[in-house]
Design goal:
341 residues, TIM Barrel, alpha/beta, 11 helices
């Protein structure tokens, strides 16, 4: 099955994701979403990590009042810390205040659930997606023998499932409106992930064309290579920690196993994606592999091969420190060159 981009594909979309730290005003997300909208971004995602960042639904509702076209959603929420009825209700509220621009990023959770000792399994997500979809369309679900509905939910909201490993990727292909590929700025890994999404879609009588593919990674644009690498390193450490849990590593990742082990042992959730504290325990080689660090020209060359795949949008994880400048730089310098490519 082909995972190449269609010759008749729609123009590539771009987005950003971030969390609002305890040090920032919650309005910050809306201000950046408004700027991103001006610069041609199509979507803005807000992290749902209740222990370390401010509340996403409040930030998203504020952003809806400050923007007109950009799609808005949690990136990503989960069925463990937020009951499916709560998610259906809040999604309906955001969809109302944004006039139909809500997208629901959904997944197994990370910083929101692991510090609490909770887990979400693939089958849990399948059930949760089916329930949220039923509720959001005005239907009722069975909870312990009771038929329950959400009175305010009347319109289907697109559900994007965050996935990186085979079972979750196949589930996204089978049941989700979109898939958030949690991986790397690497065509080999992305192709491998897309093949699993396509397989899941085929098993459900769908095709890869039925699934919006949103690829997430981070980047730092600077002619100072060392500065760019250190900028991306916290994100790389977070990804290395996740790779350490994979049961199956695709070809090419074996050489980074020491990075994965060190990151898993040393990762501090209280500094989740932050640049504060000691340098993260991952090599420059892995940082360059998983993210994009360097000049704008280097970034374009790194990202170009990804544009040949069936990727409908690219979301940049917006690193802390000078976020407004980053959005302007991506919108003014990088995105125009990627559109030409």
């Amino acid at each position: 099955m082909s995972v190449e981009a269609s010759p008749n594909r729609k123009p590539m979309e771009f987005g950003f994701m971030m969390g609002v730290s305890p040090r920032e005003p919650i309005q910050r997300f809306g201000q950046l979403a408004a700027l991103a909208e001006e610069k041609g971004f199509s979507q803005a995602w807000m992290a749902d990590s209740q222990l370390y960042t401010k509340d996403p639904w409040t930030a998203l509702a504020l952003a809806a009042t400050m923007t007109k076209t950009i799609k808005l959603g949690p990136g990503v929420t989960n069925p463990a810390t937020r009951h499916v009825t709560v998610t259906a209700c809040t999604s309906a509220a955001l969809n109302e205040v944004s006039e139909g621009r809500c997208v629901l990023g959904f997944g197994s959770g990370d910083a929101s659930i692991y510090p609490l000792g909770m887990t979400v399994k693939v089958d849990d997500l399948r059930i949760a997606i089916e329930r949220i979809r039923t509720l959001s369309e005005g239907g009722k679900i069975d909870i312990d023998g009771r038929q329950v509905g959400v009175a305010t939910a009347k319109t289907r909201v697109p559900i994007y499932l965050a996935a990186s490993q085979p079972r979750m990727l196949r589930l996204a292909g089978a049941v989700a409106d979109g898939v958030i590929l949690m991986g790397a700025a690497q065509p080999e890994l992305t192709r491998w992930q897309l093949e699993h999404v396509a397989a899941g879609a085929a098993e459900a009588g769908r095709t890869l064309a039925d699934v919006h593919v949103d690829l997430w990674f981070t980047l730092s644009l600077s002619d100072d290579k060392a500065k760019a690498l250190n900028d991306v390193r916290p994100w790389a450490a977070s990804q290395a920690r996740m790779f350490a849990k994979w049961k199956e590593l695709p070809g090419g990742l074996d050489r980074f196993v020491p990075d994965f082990k060190h990151a898993a042992e040393a990762y501090d959730f209280s500094r989740h994606l932050s640049r504060a504290g000691e340098p993260e325990p991952v090599s420059d080689d892995f940082v360059q592999w998983v993210g994009v660090a360097g000049s704008t020209e280097e970034a374009v060359e790194k990202i170009k091969p990804l544009l040949k795949l069936k990727v409908d949008s690219i979301t940049f994880a917006l690193l802390p420190g000078g976020r407004e400048a980053r959005v302007r730089q991506y919108g003014d310098e990088l995105i125009p060159l990627l559109r030409k490519a």
